[in-house]
Amino acid sequence: MVKKYKQIEHIMAVIWGEESNTVIIAVHGDQSNKEDVPIQILAENAAQYGM
After folding, report:
1. What does pTM read for this prediction?
2. Closest to 36 measured CA to CA, from 11, 8, 14
């Protein structure tokens, strides 16, 4: 799975997967991380459906 790192204003973001016309925004909790397993699973499942 391709991961790209991008800073949006002052917030670091991770863009998972190949470029697509569809965007899914996953928000993690206070003690979580943007690269945690549940977010990775979401990205992998979305990629299977071409999102």
Report:
1. 0.78
2. 14
